[in-house]
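User: Hey, quick favor. My workstation is busy. Could you predict this chain's structure for me?
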Amino acid sequence: MAYEKINSKVVKVQLGAPVVARKGAMLAYKGEVTFVPHGMPGGMGGMAGMAGMAGHGGGGFGGMAGQLLQRAAGEHVSMMEAVGQGEVWYGFRGQHVTVLELTGQQLQVEADRLLVHDSGLQSSTVQVGQGGVRGAISGMASGQGLFTTQLSGHGSVAVVSHGGTFAIEVDPSRHVAVDPQSYIAALGQLSVTVGAKVGWRDAVGRGSGEAIQLQVTGHGTVYVQASEQKP
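Assistant: No problem, here it is.
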């Protein structure tokens, strides 16, 4: 593995092919390494569609679409690409690091949880689940947002969390519910939707997992952090 955990909060990457890391996450490096800004991942079709909603919606609906656009924009975190030969040490704000290996699977991960990943992985921004207006409002209330970053292919990914992560296996026989504040990533053929345990009017303004939950269904593994604290 090209990614070696030095301790619970630092990972060392042996460069061969370039890697893409969160801006400000490079702690040290050795060798001939160059760092260049990396373009925002993902297609903009979904955001363009939301822009259309904002442009044609009436007062309140247009305002809500505007908030959704902000949520979508928030899915993009400035990234830097490391190119060259050498070793780079990565960490971010003393948060715990978890390294995941993708062997052809699909990983859905919050952009603000991404620390570093192989540049060869395919990256896009996708909408979290469905649910129409109710789902949209629930997404805003949860703080989870409606968009997430999707990586796929073969390669390594390191994510950050508060207190480390634990893995929960998901199979088609029973879904897993996760507090939006604690959700880190979903690996495999999984669908993540935003659900409310209360009426949507009551859900607005409540970020706790007791009111708003992420429903994870399908087959794979969901990673949850040992805290409700966001980065």
